[in-house]
Amino acid sequence: MSKTQNKTYKHLSLAERVEIYSLFQQGLSLRDIAGRVGRNIGTVSRELKRNKSRCDRPYLPIKAQENADRRAVKQRTKAPLKDYETHFYVKEKLTGEDEWSPETISGRIKMDKPGLSICPETIYQYIYGEGKRFKLWKHLTERRKKRKRIKGRCVRRGTVASKIPGAISILKRPSCVNKRRTEGHIETDLMEGTRSEKAVVSVEVFRKTRYTQLSKLPNKKAKTKEKILTKKLKVVTSLQKSQRPVVRSITADNGSENTNHQKMSKALDVKFFFCQPYHSWEKGTVENTIKRIRRFIPKGTPLSQFSDTQIQWLENKLNNTPRKCLNYLTPNEAFEKEVNSYKFRKYRKEKEDSVALRRRM
Questions:
Q1: Over the chain, what is the mean pLDDT?
Q2: What is the rounded distance in angstroms from the CA atom of residue 179 to the CA atom of residue 20?
Q3: How many C-beta neighbours within 10 Å does residue 39 have?
Q4: Residue 35 φ then ψ, to 5°
Q5: CB atoms within 10 A of CB 23
Q6: Is the pLDDT score of 299 beyond 90?
Q7: Distance from C-alpha of 127 to C-alpha of 138, rounded to nearest angstrom
Q8: Distance between CA 246 and CA 183 in Å, rounded?
Q9: What pLDDT is stored for residue 133 in this prediction?
Q10: 111 and 331 in contact (C-beta within 8 Å)?
Q11: Is the N end or the C end of the chain the one with fewer CB atoms within 10 Å?
């Protein structure tokens, strides 16, 4: 087997470069030079073109060796995430104040830095690979030292009746709510701090836009939840500018804090649905939001340490973080877009009515 047929590739040595230079000066063709050196003709051709000291100067073997060594060092010391600009962007958004997830970084970089792109899996591999020495996993949502395999969910068999009087099952909720086609459908839940304290945080999330509202409550009583939830959602309802309601339904679990659901339904003119007992994943949007909140308020942390101002800051942070499910818009941007579409429909309807009235006259 000849050298040209050997599939194991090795970089040209200085001796081979000297031999190529000598044969080229004698006027031999590239094919003849390749045969004598035992290299592919393409290797010889590229060597004579790319390793010149300058484009307008002849090929010199010593300068060619220096160029090749410099290029090899540069390739070995390149940024771990494609290039330096991408690497800087990923580190800044992952470890900075934002603490974005790899999915958010991957989607948002195309908007913030046109021409750059990176796969979420590449970021994860860097975090749990070369970047593990920097403990970057501490900036992820669940802060796991090792990647966790997703296992199948355990489902309780059989059905259990709800203890909430007059509760309407989530099974009767319209299919359009499940598919997130329309805005105005909310999921709510309470987040505890420590079991010894009474204070909790009430979390409400719009299913379509992921717009989130947080309220610190002094206790888990039904009257307290009813008062706060009614007050906050009435503020949102005041944004309504068309016949289509901004708040249309509320989905909750079977906790005792939701006992006064009928009063809330009447005050807000919305429908109230309840998950099946022990089926918390049926309100997965608010469960996922609480998991995001746990990055800032870990389990077992007393909520008395956090003021209403800090809870409001956390709400603003959640609503101003780009989300993959929203095509990397923030919940604030998506919710504003929805509300503006309501206004547009109202103005269009008013214009059509005025035109029709003029025609009758």
A1: 82
A2: 68
A3: 21
A4: -65, -40
A5: 19
A6: no
A7: 10
A8: 7
A9: 81
A10: no
A11: C
- Give residue 1's pLDDT band: very low, low, confident or very high (50, 70, 90): very low
CA distances from 175 to 180, 193, 274 (A): 9, 34, 15
In one-letter notation, the amino acid at residue 108 is R
Q: Decide if pLDDT at 342 tops 70.
A: no
Burial 257-293 (b: 16+ CB within 10 A, else e): bbbbbeebbeebebbbbbbbeebeebbebbbebbebb
Q: CA separation (Å) from 267 to 211, 271, 346?
A: 21, 11, 24
Residue 130 tokens read as 């070369």
Distance CA(3)–CA(337), nearest Å, equals 66
Q: How far is Cα 237 from Cα 74, in angstroms, rounded to an integer?
A: 59
Listed range (154-163, 219-228, 252-261) with the worst mean pLDDT: 154-163
- Where along the chain do its domains lie? 3-76, 84-139, 170-341
> What span, in angstroms and rounded, lies between the C-alpha atoms of 47 and 33?
12
Entry pTM: 0.59
The number of C-alpha atoms within 13 Å of 262 and in the hemisphere containing its C-beta is 6
Q: What is the dihedral sign for C-alpha 33, 37, 41, 42?
A: negative
> How far, CA to CA in Å, does 169 sit from each of 149, 163, 178, 184, 332?
32, 12, 14, 19, 30
Q: Which residue reads 């010391």 in tokens?
A: 77
Q: Residue 200 in contact with residue 316, Cβ under 8 Å?
A: no
Angle at CA 318, nearest 5°, toward 145 and 290?
60
Q: Where are the beta strands (DSSP E) in 11-73?
A: none
Alpha-carbon torsion 171, 172, 177, 183, what sign? negative
Domain 170-341 has CATH 3.30.420.10: yes
